[in-house]
Amino acid sequence: MLAIRPASSAEAQDLARIGLAAWEVAIRVWGEDAGRLRENARNAYYDFCTRGWPDILVAEWDGVLAGWGCSEKADDFITDLWVHPDFQGRGVGTALLSEIEAQVRARGYAAARLDTHARNTGAIRLYKRLGYRVKSYFVTYSEPLDEDIDKVEMIKEFEPGAEQGPEEDGLYSP
Predict the structure, then answer these.
(1) Which residue from 44, 111, 45 is spatially nearest to 75, judged by alpha carbons?
(2) What is the distance between the alpha carbons of residues 35 and 146, in angstroms, rounded to a whole number?
(3) What is the pLDDT of residues 140-154, one digit of tens each?
(4) Closest by Cα among 78, 68, 65 to 113
(5) Among 132, 150, 128, 130, which residue's Cα sits nearest to residue 140?
């Protein structure tokens, strides 16, 4: 059974391990060398989870930590969504995202935003299936990884009939 709840400070290290495991699987799919970036990523996850646990929601599957998500600035931007590879495909990410979106709505925002690596096609497909669309493509410097990263920003309008913008085409179209 799946349960969503706030994180506790005692879970920071376990949450960091979940984030790192999910990240390593994702970047291997597009051919990145996880070993080259692992130490920087491990430190970034641990620092974030240690500092940001009050904003993190965790998903438990039968009492086992399965994933976590966060909107760290309590605005409309969802900064993190990580599901341990052993629990992917069971609806954990969908449930976490739904709960975070409910928090975004409760704060009065008409839409939720997030970004992901532009080559993370699995995540992009999931977000599109859940009502997000690609808004923009950009390159940004990742201080923790010490390199530039190609990303896409995605948005989901909560209200029916909200302005959708131009039709997508090319790599990121439906």
Answers:
(1) 111
(2) 14
(3) 888 877 788 899 999
(4) 78
(5) 150
pTM for the model stands at 0.86
Name 68's bridge partners.
Answer: 58, 82
pLDDT digits (tens, 9 = 90+) for 90-113: 999 999 999 999 999 999 999 999
Cα–Cα distance for residue pair 174/125, rounded to 1 Å = 8
Task: Answer left, alpha or beta for residue 111, where phi above 0 means left and psi between -120 and 50 means alpha.
Answer: beta
Question: Which amino acid, residue 49?
Answer: C
Question: CA-CA distances (angstroms) from residue 69 to 31, 132, 138, 154, 168?
Answer: 25, 17, 22, 16, 27
- Could you give phi then psi for residue 83, rounded to 5 degrees? -125, 130
Cβ–Cβ < 8 Å for 29, 93: no
Residue with structure tokens 């530039």? Answer: 148
Query: Could you give the 3-state DSSP secondary structure of residue 79?
Result: coil
Contact (CB, 8 A) for 78 and 70 = yes
